[in-house]
Design goal:
Elements lengths: L3 E12 L2 E12 L3 E5 L6 H8 L7 E6 L2 E2 L8 E4 L11 H11 L4 H14 L15 H13 L5 E5 L7 H18 L2 E5 L3 H7 L2 E6 L2 E7 H5 L4 E6 L4 H10 E7 L2 E6 L8 H7 L4 E7 L3 H9 L5
Helix pairs in contact: 2-3, 2-4, 3-4
Length: about 300
């Protein structure tokens, strides 16, 4: 069996004259929690719909667990769409029972699993009520429970935080982390909520205008463009000249310097260079980017 739950190779998607996806390629290892970020219109939902078999790519291929997509593979996948639609005449319990049967489960197992999921997602107290009376947050919690009912090997979540209040989001996050840690469930989390992704994801891919703008472990992406903060005993013209020469962005306030080294500069060599120029260094710190700063850098601030 492949070590990758998802393998995407040069996927393109074209709607008439508009390219939603332009040759996107990446892989998600089994057991990973992968965050797919991007501005509105970046192509995130188009890619999710292709992976679920709801839409056909214009060009390129993808594999799930080393296999070409087939309807049978859907039994390995738990899916929560961005906008979930549930018949209002059903109760939460009835809807989960229906989803369990679709997943091929037997009634005793469905009842036991449904009770557990309703409690974990925080809607056990409304499980016997008709869905028509549910708030958007309740529907989202029920949707997550339905995605988990069949013990999927791959969980695909499209904007799962939509409609959730802070408590609902915390419950969602804890449920997601538990599924990943206890069962090794692979998670593809599609979201534009950076905090949501940063709290749970090991790896990040950022789509922008249909292309993959960045990908990698979260911490590696955040270390990609480290600013440096230096505090010296006294500022000299030699120090000023040196940091201006090696910096693409620079801020000097009295004896404190904050700058972004040019790409060809090795940050590890900077302290020695400063000492050679006579600096008495009181503080030297590499400032890691936040995920928000990474996102804005690689998308160029695009949020359309």
């Amino acid at each position: 069996m492949s070590e990758f739950a998802i393998e995407i190779d040069s996927i393109q998607k074209k709607y008439k004259e508009q390219h939603a996806l332009k040759g996107v390629s990446f892989r998600v290892r089994q057991g990973s929690v992968f965050g797919l970020l991007g501005p509105n219109g970046a192509g995130k939902t188009s890619l999710v719909r292709i992976l679920m078999g709801f839409s056909k790519q214009t060009e390129g291929n993808f594999r799930l667990f080393g296999l070409s997509f087939s309807p049978r593979l859907r039994k390995k996948i738990g899916y929560l769409p961005e906008k979930i639609s549930i018949p209002g005449f059903l109760t939460g319990e009835e809807f989960l029972s229906f989803c369990g049967k679709l997943a091929g489960m037997r009634s005793p197992s469905i009842q036991k699993k449904s009770k557990n999921l309703l409690e974990r997602t925080g809607i056990a107290d409304v499980a016997s009520k008709k869905v028509a009376g549910y708030s958007k947050g309740m529907l989202q919690r029920l949707g997550l429970a339905s995605a988990l009912i069949g013990d999927p090997e791959l969980l695909i979540l499209d904007e799962p935080g939509s409609g959730l209040d802070p408590k609902g989001y915390i419950d969602f996050r804890e449920t997601l982390v538990e599924e990943n840690k206890t069962k090794g469930t692979t998670v593809l989390l599609n979201s534009h909520r950076l905090l949501e992704v940063e709290k749970v994801c090991y790896e990040i891919g950022i789509l922008n205008l249909g292309t993959l703008a960045a990908i990698g472990p979260l911490e590696s992406l955040k270390e990609g463009k480290n600013r440096i903060l230096v505090k010296v005993e006294s500022m000299t013209s030699e120090l000023d000249s040196y940091v201006r020469k090696i910096s693409s962005e620079l801020k000097i306030v009295e004896n404190q310097i904050e700058f972004l080294p040019e790409n060809e500069i090795d940050p590890r060599k900077i302290p020695a260079e400063l000492v050679n120029l006579g600096a008495n260094i009181l503080r030297y710190e590499r400032i890691t980017e936040s995920l928000e700063e990474v996102f804005l850098r690689v998308t160029g601030g695009n949020n359309e």
